[in-house]
Amino acid sequence: MNHSLLPLFASTVLAVGSVALGVVARAQSPMPARPTSEMQAVLDELAALGGKPIATLTAKEARKQPTPADAVAKLMKKAKIKPEKVADIDNRDIDGPGGDIKIRVYTPKGDGPFPVIVYYHGGGFVIADLDVYDATPRALCNAVGAVVVSSHYRQGPEHKFPAAHDDALAAYQWTLKNAAKIKGDATRVAVVGESAGGNLAAYVSIQARDRKLPLPIYQVLVYPVTDSDMTTASYVENANAKPLNKPIMAWFFENAATPADAKDPRLAPLRADLAGLPPTTVITAQIDPLRSEGEAFAKKLTAAGVKVDYRNFNGVTHEFFGMGAVVPEAKEALDLAASDLKTAFATKVVGQ
Question: Which of the chain's ends, N or C, has fewer CB atoms near its CB within 10 Å?
Answer without folding.
Answer: C
